[in-house]
Write a structure and sequence with these properties.
The structure holds two protein chains of two kinds.
Chain A lengths: L10 E3 L3 E4 L2 E4 L11 E3 L10 H22 L10 H16 L3 E4 L9 H20 L3 E5 L2 H17 L11 E3 L4 H15 L3 E5 L5 H11 L3 E6 L2 H10 L2 E4 L1 H11 L2 H31 L3 H6 L1
Parallel strand pairs in A: 5-6, 5-8, 6-7, 8-9, 9-10
Antiparallel strand pairs in A: 1-4, 2-3
Chain B lengths: L3 H19 L4 H37 L5 H21 L6 H32 L5 H16 L2 H6 L3 H10 L1 H25 L11
Chain lengths: ~300, ~210
C-alpha cells in the first residue's frame, strides 16, 4: 500500500471459520489455493446510498446561482429583518451611555471549523465597527487560540474600516482557558468585575450557556444570544433579551455583511427553507392520503 | 494574491471534503483523511499561541499595576506551578500535578457546575411568570412535564406521565426538528458561502 493508504486495488485473503460447540476450526487463508479465497478491493467512485445528499447539494448550489444571477441583473433582494440584529444598536448605545464595555463570546462548544463560529465572526465584525464608532470597549474572551487570532484580525480590520485604528486593543481579545467550566468561570468573573452594558453570546454553546446568560442578566447587561443547539436555545430563550434561533444566526451573518453576494446566499437559504417546508407538507399529505412514504422512498 | 490564496485553499479543501463524502476508497478519500490529520496537528500547535496570549495579557496587567493585578498574579503563579509540575514531574497518579488537579482544580470545576442548578431556578422563575399568553403556555407545559416526571405526579393524577410524554414527543419534538432542519440548512448555506469564497470572515476581514 502507498503512503496515502489508498483503499483501492488492495488484495485481501479470507478464511472460513466454523464453530461446533466450544471448538473453533479455522482454515488458514494460505491453505486455500483457489481463487475464491482472495479478493481485491475496488474504489467506488460514487457512494450510491448518498444520492439524496447529492441532490440536496445540487439544489442548494442552483438556488445560490439563481440568487447571484438576480443580484447581477440589478434585482434588490428583500431580506427579512431580525429583531435580535435590530437590537444590536440599542445594546451598544446602552453600554456607551453607561460607560461600560460590551462582552462578546462565541461559546466553548466550537472551533474555527464550525459554521456557527464563522457566522459569529461575521456578526463580530459589524459589532466591532459600531463599537469603534461609539468608542465602546469590546471584550472578547475565548477558549480557542485560533479563534482569538481570527477575532483580533477581524476587530482590528473593523476598527480600521471606520477610521478608528486607535480604538483597537489586542489585549481585550484574549485566550482564557480550554476547560469548559474554567472558561465559564473566567467570563463570569470578567462580567462581575467589568459590569458590561451588553453581552453578546453568539456561537456554539454547551453547558456554559445558562451560566453565562444568567450572570449577564444578574450584572444588569442587555443580552443578545444565538446558537444552533436546540438544548442551549431553550436556556437562551428564557434567560436572554433577544435570541437568534438556529438558522437565524447564519442568516444574521449574511445580513450584516451588506454584501450583494452574501445577501444572495441568505435569500437562497430562505428559499431552500420554503422548499423543505413544501416537501414536508407534501410528504405528510401523501402518507396520510395514499400511504406513500416519500422520505422512506428517498432514503431507499 | 494575499487574500486569494487562502480563498483558493478553502475552496480546494471544501471541494475535496465534498468529493470524499460521495466517493468510497478513492484517492480523494485518502487525501481528505490526510488533510484531517494535518488539521489536528496544526490545532495542537495553536495551544502554544494560547499560552503566550495568556502569559502576555496577565504579565502586562501585573507590570502596569492594573487594579486587577492580584488576580493576574494568581493566574501566572498557577500557570507556572501547574505547567512546571506537569513538565518536570509528569502527570501520572500521585504526582504534584495530579494532586493539584484532584484537590484544587476538580473541586473548583464541580463548584462552577453546581452553580448551574441555581441559575436554572432563577431563569425558570423569570421565564415562568405568566406575563403573556406565550409565558402562560410555557408555564403550563413546564408544570405538566415536571409533575409528569416525578412519582407524586402519578399520585395526583395517573394520566399526568402520559401527558408529559405527549408534550415532549409531539409539540416539543416538532419544534426541535424544525429548528434542527433550519440550522442544518443554515450551516449548509454557510459552508457553501465559505467554499465559494463569498464568506471570508475566517480571514479576519472586518
Amino acid at each position: 500500500m502507498s503512503a496515502f493508504n489508498w483503499r483501492c486495488r488492495v488484495s485481501f485473503q479470507f478464511a472460513i471459520a466454523s464453530s461446533i460447540g466450544a471448538v473453533i476450526a479455522l482454515i488458514p487463508a494460505a491453505a486455500l489455493a483457489d481463487s475464491a479465497s482472495s479478493a481485491t478491493s475496488a474504489a467506488g467512485w460514487f457512494h450510491s446510498s448518498r444520492i439524496a445528499e447529492l441532490i440536496g447539494i445540487v439544489i442548494a448550489i442552483l438556488a445560490l446561482a439563481i440568487a447571484a444571477l438576480l443580484v447581477k441583473r440589478g434585482k434588490r433582494l428583500q431580506l427579512r429583518s431580525l429583531p435580535a440584529l435590530d437590537a444590536v444598536g440599542d445594546a451598544l448605545g446602552r453600554a456607551t451611555e453607561l460607560g461600560t464595555p460590551v462582552v462578546y463570546s462565541t461559546g466553548w462548544g466550537g472551533d474555527m471549523g464550525r459554521p456557527t463560529t464563522m457566522a459569529s465572526m461575521g456578526i463580530l465584525a459589524e459589532i466591532a465597527k459600531r463599537a469603534a464608532e461609539y468608542n465602546c470597549r469590546l471584550l472578547f474572551p475565548s477558549h480557542d487560540p485560533l479563534i482569538v487570532s481570527v477575532a483580533q484580525e477581524t476587530v482590528s480590520q473593523s476598527a480600521l474600516a471606520v477610521g478608528r485604528p486607535d480604538w483597537y486593543r489586542a489585549d481585550d481579545i484574549s485566550f482564557v482557558s480550554q476547560s469548559q467550566l474554567g472558561y465559564a468561570a473566567a467570563v463570569d468573573g470578567m462580567m462581575a468585575r467589568e459590569r458590561p452594558g451588553a453581552v453578546f453570546l453568539l456561537g456554539s454553546f454547551e453547558g456554559e450557556a445558562l451560566i453565562l446568560a444568567e450572570t449577564a442578566h444578574q450584572t444588569g447587561a442587555m443580552t443578545i444570544a444565538g446558537t444552533d443547539s436546540t438544548i442551549q436555545l431553550s436556556f437562551f430563550l428564557v434567560a436572554c433579551d433577544y435570541t437568534l434561533i438556529g438558522e437565524e444566526l447564519f442568516a444574521a451573518s449574511g445580513i450584516v455583511a451588506k454584501d450583494p453576494a452574501a445577501a444572495a446566499a441568505v435569500w437562497s437559504q430562505d428559499w431552500l427553507k420554503y422548499l423543505v417546508l413544501t416537501l414536508l407538507i407534501v410528504g405528510a399529505a401523501l402518507t396520510a392520503t395514499v400511504g406513500f412514504n416519500l422520505f422512506q422512498w428517498t432514503a431507499r | 494574491m494575499k487574500s486569494r490564496l487562502p480563498v483558493l485553499v478553502a475552496f480546494i479543501s471544501g471541494a475535496l471534503m465534498i468529493l470524499a463524502f460521495f466517493g468510497r476508497g478513492t484517492v480523494v478519500d485518502a487525501v481528505s483523511d490526510r488533510a484531517l490529520t494535518w488539521q489536528t496537528i496544526v490545532g495542537g500547535f495553536s495551544l502554544l499561541l494560547g499560552a503566550v496570549s495568556i502569559a502576555r495579557v496577565h504579565w502586562k496587567k501585573v507590570a502596569t499595576r492594573h487594579e486587577d493585578r492580584f488576580y493576574s498574579l494568581c493566574l501566572l503563579i498557577c500557570f507556572v506551578v501547574m505547567g512546571g509540575s506537569g513538565v518536570f514531574y509528569g502527570i501520572g497518579s500521585g504526582t504534584l500535578f495530579d494532586t493539584l488537579f484532584q484537590r484544587i482544580q476538580a473541586p473548583m470545576m464541580s463548584t462552577m457546575f453546581s452553580v448551574l442548578a441555581f441559575f436554572i431556578a432563577s431563569a425558570a422563575y423569570r421565564a415562568f411568570r405568566a406575563r403573556s399568553a406565550s409565558s402562560a403556555i410555557l408555564l403550563v407545559a413546564a408544570v405538566l412535564v415536571m409533575l409528569g416526571r416525578i412519582p407524586m405526579g402519578q399520585y395526583i393524577y395517573h394520566g399526568l406521565p402520559s401527558w408529559a410524554d405527549w408534550i415532549m414527543t409531539v409539540p416539543s419534538m416538532a419544534v426541535q426538528r424544525g429548528i434542527l432542519i433550519g440550522a442544518a440548512l443554515g450551516a449548509a448555506s454557510m459552508s457553501l458561502r465559505i467554499i465559494l469564497g463569498i464568506e471570508r470572515t475566517y480571514l479576519g476581514r472586518g
